[in-house]
Each structure stands twice: as structure tokens, then as C-alpha cells.
């Protein structure tokens, strides 16, 4: 008699999580960052282009090239920083596993995203932050900070929503990695179902 996989979430720990859910949240956040960054850069370009005097194909090609370079560099840097971000998120998520209100979780993860964005801006700013003086520079160089500030809480929310919907039976359980096979339990289940024991 096999029972469905039980959830790690209990009444005492309504927002508990598994290691797989934590990693899924980190990867979801990374993918969202990679989606939000080029979208934001394109918006920044559109906002700053109205001052120009018409459509310039060379400028569009330059913009596309810049977006691709920024995506590759930002994607690699973000992927390298992901394990360090998990070192911050794991203890916070462990503390918050007893807290049911989603708004508190969103606030905490928004603050983490904003902290990462601020660290990026502080690193980029250095002693001469002249790029920040023009609107185009502020939008272009500030966009990764905005993207990470949005991606972190959104990645958490999507992952938590998926896990809670799975617990409620609204989504099928994942058939990912399995733990070690308990041969005694498998034999007992087979005998209870009237089948021959598993060897």
C-alpha cells in the first residue's frame, strides 16, 4: 500500500521547503533575471531614443549587440554568484518556514534583491560614477539592479506557488530523484496487494 509522497509543509512549518525547491527557486530567479534584463534594456533604449532624429539601422544593430553582450556577461556573473546568494537565502528561508503570510516572504526577498542591486551599483559606481548623470546611462547601467530587485521575489513567489499548488493537489507531484529503495517496505506493499514479493 503505497502512499502519495507527503509534503514537507506542516501546520507548524507552513512554508517549509526542500533542497530541490530551493534550487528550483534559485534557477527560476536566474532565468527571470535573464528575461527581465534585456527587456529592461530595450525599454531603456526606447525611452532614450525619442531625442534622436529618426530611425538608424546602425544604432539598432549596436543596441542588439550591446544587449547580447550584457546578457552573456550578466548571465555568467549571476550564475557564478548564485551559490553565494543561496548561502544567504537558505538560513532566511529556514527562519521564515514558520511564517505563513506571503507578504512577509515577498518583502524579505525583495529586500535581498534590492541589496544585490545596491551592491552591483556600489561596485559599478566606484569613485567616478559619471555614467549616472545622464538618463540613458542611469537607465542602461541601472537596469541590472532593477532586474535583480524584481527577479528575486518573483522567482521565490513562482516557486512557492508551484509547491503549494502541488501540495493542494492542483499540480501533479514531480517524479524526480528518488531516495534509496526500501526493499522491506516494497515487499510488504507487494504482499498486501497480493503480488509476489520483490527480490
Automatic annotation (TrEMBL):
Query: What residue intervals traverse the membrane?
Result: 22-47, 59-90, 102-121, 141-159
Q: Which UniProt keywords apply?
A: Membrane, Transmembrane, Transmembrane helix
Q: Does the keyword Transmembrane apply?
A: yes
From the Swiss-Prot or TrEMBL record, give the protein name.
Answer: Uncharacterized protein
Amino acid at each position: 500500500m503505497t502512499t502519495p509522497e507527503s509534503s514537507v509543509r506542516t501546520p507548524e512549518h507552513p512554508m517549509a521547503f526542500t533542497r530541490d525547491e530551493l534550487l528550483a527557486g534559485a534557477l527560476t530567479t536566474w532565468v527571470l533575471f535573464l528575461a527581465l534584463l534585456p527587456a529592461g534594456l530595450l525599454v531603456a533604449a526606447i525611452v532614450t531614443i525619442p531625442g534622436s532624429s529618426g530611425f538608424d539601422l546602425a544604432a539598432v544593430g549596436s543596441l542588439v549587440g550591446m544587449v547580447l553582450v550584457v546578457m552573456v556577461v550578466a548571465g555568467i556573473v549571476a550564475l557564478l554568484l548564485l551559490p553565494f546568494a543561496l548561502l544567504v537565502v537558505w538560513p532566511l528561508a529556514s527562519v521564515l518556514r514558520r511564517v505563513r503570510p506571503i507578504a512577509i516572504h515577498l518583502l524579505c526577498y525583495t529586500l535581498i534583491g534590492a541589496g544585490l542591486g545596491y551592491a552591483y551599483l556600489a561596485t559599478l559606481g566606484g569613485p567616478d560614477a559619471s555614467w549616472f548623470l545622464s538618463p540613458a546611462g542611469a537607465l542602461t547601467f541601472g537596469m541590472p539592479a532593477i532586474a535583480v530587485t524584481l527577479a528575486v521575489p518573483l522567482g521565490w513567489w513562482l516557486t512557492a506557488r508551484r509547491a503549494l499548488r502541488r501540495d493542494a493537489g492542483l499540480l501533479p507531484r514531480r517524479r524526480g530523484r528518488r531516495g534509496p529503495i526500501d526493499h522491506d517496505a516494497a515487499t510488504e506493499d507487494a504482499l498486501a496487494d497480493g503480488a509476489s514479493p520483490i527480490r
